[in-house]
């Protein structure tokens, strides 16, 4: 298969609306391209790494399909309790390379393939066709397909779909312009994504240093290590934190140092700080994925205000 740069949606905080748009669920997994030619199947990652042997359940399911086609979709592992995609479990599956471990994982953490685009069919390049036409061809191709192969549904009401996603704690919604061709990467204005966020109040208990500078902060939630956060950590916050009283001992917070900060240069705060943060989701270990600082109680966030205060 030729080298491809899969079309990727652009992140926005508000989705476009109107009759020219269609909407789909955003699945929290790994992007996979599948090339199929009369039972000969190859799977590729977004970076075009070969994943054919990594996901045998997808490969074997596609081997039974006739015709020649290339499809685009997302490989996901579902949480057995919530039924939602689990990015953490998907990461664990993708790291397996031993054939025995993969066979066992197929039984314990099976991968499902959520298909949302058709790029080639019977030797014809469909990427120049509008999305609605490619979607219609995909429906025709996949109408009798069964698990673990699923075609992503399309919706015409962004608000209703977003409310469902938000209440069911899915990753987000993708908006696609009905007349859009299949472009390269993010060089377009035709696909957009909006993600849900997990907000929580945490305690900042430590400051991680790198080469003598503040690099990130240690979070705690309900007495448990909650991860590290650096996004949203600007110069004003760092300056405010640099004057706080710290210690080299974590005894005030933990009996043993959490794995995420072991062998790191951590300055533990003598007095913790309350903070508001947001992130993608909580892992099974209660760590916040992709955290970002919203605010820290008692810490100056505004550089311009800090400069004015110095001039007074």
Automatic annotation (TrEMBL):
<keyword id="KW-0436">Ligase</keyword>
<dbReference type="GO" id="GO:0005524">
    <property type="term" value="F:ATP binding"/>
</dbReference>
<dbReference type="InterPro" id="IPR012340">
    <property type="entry name" value="NA-bd_OB-fold"/>
</dbReference>
<dbReference type="GO" id="GO:0006281">
    <property type="term" value="P:DNA repair"/>
</dbReference>
<feature type="domain" description="ATP-dependent DNA ligase family profile">
    <location>
        <begin position="104"/>
        <end position="237"/>
    </location>
</feature>
<dbReference type="GO" id="GO:0006310">
    <property type="term" value="P:DNA recombination"/>
</dbReference>
<dbReference type="InterPro" id="IPR050191">
    <property type="entry name" value="ATP-dep_DNA_ligase"/>
</dbReference>
<dbReference type="GO" id="GO:0003910">
    <property type="term" value="F:DNA ligase (ATP) activity"/>
</dbReference>
<dbReference type="InterPro" id="IPR012310">
    <property type="entry name" value="DNA_ligase_ATP-dep_cent"/>
</dbReference>
<dbReference type="Pfam" id="PF01068">
    <property type="entry name" value="DNA_ligase_A_M"/>
</dbReference>
<protein>
    <submittedName>
        <fullName>DNA ligase</fullName>
    </submittedName>
</protein>
<comment type="similarity">
    <text>Belongs to the ATP-dependent DNA ligase family.</text>
</comment>
